[in-house]
Amino acid sequence: MSDPKEAAKLLGMARKDLQAMRALAAPEDAGIETFAFHAQQAVEKALKAWLAAKGVLYPRIHDLDRLLDLLRKEGAAVPPEFDALGILTDFGVAFRYDAYEEPDEPFDRARMIAQVERLLEHLAQLFAPGCSL
């Protein structure tokens, strides 16, 4: 059975992490580990909100690829563009305690904010009255 209260709570928390991402968007304001941790948290909470809205008991994991796979297994039409968010998984656990070495091509914070915004907008549309998940 769908759990709209849980879904709404998680989506609200994901929006707060998105706000934190925006506040930490300038590299001089925060290290990439801190910025990307909030990005990972926003995506994790959004995907779990989607699962809750579908009535799926979500696992207590941080692996975004596994959550995306579970959504698809449960019949959700997950746009392929959201697969790229899986790169954030390590920021939810590993890079909270270990230093992240920025590759030659720097992490694009603005692009990541836009991707998370698209995910949250997608869910807001799905959760609108009259829409099917």
Describe the structure.
- The chain is mostly helical.
- The chain has a single domain (4-126), classed as Four Helix Bundle (Hemerythrin (Met), subunit A).
- The protein is 59% helix and 0% strand.
- The protein contains six helices and no strands.
- The chain has helices at 4-23, 32-53, 64-73, 89-92, 94-97, 109-126.
- The longest helix is centred in the N-terminal third of the chain and has 22 residues, at 32-53.
- It is globular and about 45 Å long.
- It starts with a helix and ends in a 7-residue tail after the last helix.
- The mean pLDDT is 89.
Quick gist of this model?
The protein is an all-alpha fold and 133 residues long. It has helices at residues 4-23, 32-53, 64-73, 89-92, 94-97, 109-126.
Main attributes of the structure:
133 residues, mainly alpha, Four Helix Bundle (Hemerythrin (Met), subunit A)
